[in-house]
Amino acid sequence: MSSDAKLPPYSEHPPSKGGAASSQITSNRIAGNVQTCSIKDHQLDYLKIVRESATSYYLCLSVDPAPIYRIEFVSDSNKVGDIQIFPAFDTTLPAVAAARLSSNPKSKSEPPAMICTSEPYLPDARWMPLTRAPTFVVGEDYRISIPIVTVPGAAPVQRQFTWRTSLCEPFFELWWDGPLPHVSPRGFIKDDRDSRYVFATVVRAAETGGNLIEIRRGGGLEFELAVVLGMFVILWHRNKQLV
Hints:
The protein contains 2 helices and 12 strands, in the order αββββββββββββα.
């Protein structure tokens, strides 16, 4: 057999010895073709919440009606939480996030709810209190620490947020408390915050029909699930419902 049989087939475009690293070097950016999305990009996703029954809803994109998650109010005494979020594509999977509602919602000493955004069925799952926040206007605001990705590819970190529900109906807004990430805190004045600090807006009975969540992209799944759960907890606590 000729030794030529062991040679690779002829090609006018031989493979690069550098692989991905070589393609990055020839690119006009260090990241090459890798695309990332940061919370500081101010990109938004639009989610619709659709009622299926008095105790169940599903979540989908505003541009695609296919259900992504199911949200259920559960009355079973053995429940993981009173409000649970499940993947819509498989009814056998456990809840991916849940909220436990207070048995005494009028209490001033205990939080209206505890929220878990990852594996709530585990005995060591982390539950975060959603508490009332002082406000000088009519209504109630709420405060919660939420895991959020602040650097693409990094693990989520806990950051403090406030739900503003005292604005004109039907809007609820989730505001970042404190200075924004990777921005000098020098000169930060909480009362001077602008729309850059709004990370989610809930619109009940939106003009597009149904209920809409406008949410900052790049914060990670736990952040997004916390927004959905927070919305339902606040509506429950204020004796309101989605259309």
